Amino acid sequence: MKRKRMLSFAAVVAGFALYFSLNEPNTAYAMHIMEGFLPVGWAVFWWVLFLPFFLMGLRSLKRLTKEQPETKLLLGLAGAFAFVLSALKIPSVTGSSSHPTGTGLGAVLFGPLAMTVLGSFVLLFQAVLLAHGGLTTLGANAFSMAVVGPFVAYSVYRLTVRSTGKQRLAVFLAAALADMATYVVTSLQLALAFPAASGGVLASFAKFAGIFAVTQIPLAISEGLLTVLVWNWLMVYNRQELNTLQSIKRGA
User: Fold this and answer.
1) Where is this protein found (predicted)?
2) Are the C-beta atoms of residues 212 and 99 closer than 8 Å to each other?
3) How far are the Cα atoms of 195, 202, 208, 220, 232 from residue 184, in angstroms, in the given order?
4) Is the pTM here over 0.85, yes or no?
5) Cα dihedral sign for 48, 52, 55, 57?
6) So what's the pLDDT on residue 8?
7) What domains are defined for the chain?
8) Which residues contact 229 (CB under 8 A, 6 or more apart)?
9) How far apart are CA 158 and CA 25, in angstroms?
10) Above 80 in pLDDT, residue 242?
11) What's the rounded mean pLDDT across residues 235-252?
């Protein structure tokens, strides 16, 4: 057990080291909607939509840590994984930037509600420490990345495991499709706030989605593969904790 905890801690430290070594301050337009970019009405709307999921997530996390306190290290790992991946802003050929989300792993491990809380804190720290995103737009960013992404990941994972029995395939699809779902929702959020003069919301959505499609599809595939690698590592060194989490979710 001590060895497993040391390995989990080392993974978290390695994740932060990877972030600080690869990520540089960047003023390009990032996929986290930046501070003040949304009209006030839409910013409030997404906050109102997001908050119920966050409150339910707090209850889910409280129950989980009370019943299985040994999973706290895995929670830290899932949070660090999401922080590192979503903070890596990769330049796009369109003059903007894209990034992975990292929420699929936590959703598969702990369920979508728990990952809603972890993802929200990831976005909060990035907004405060890295100027990546914003506080007024936190509700919108959290709804797309910390609500929709995890729910898509968890649903895809469960459906794939039940239909195929292939766990690694399920993990890959969960992470990749959670990434894509986040960007689809963000494009919709921007389209609703800024409909095109000609074509309205649909035209605007096509424009925003197209801006990121070139880089986001390969990023989603890469995130899926990386998440499978991390999952394989966890199966080797944290199998007991994974089995416990699976048992909890089956009994929920």
Assistant:
1) Cell inner membrane; Cell membrane
2) no
3) 15, 12, 9, 12, 29
4) no
5) negative
6) 52
7) 31-251 (1.10.1760.20)
8) none
9) 37
10) no
11) 65
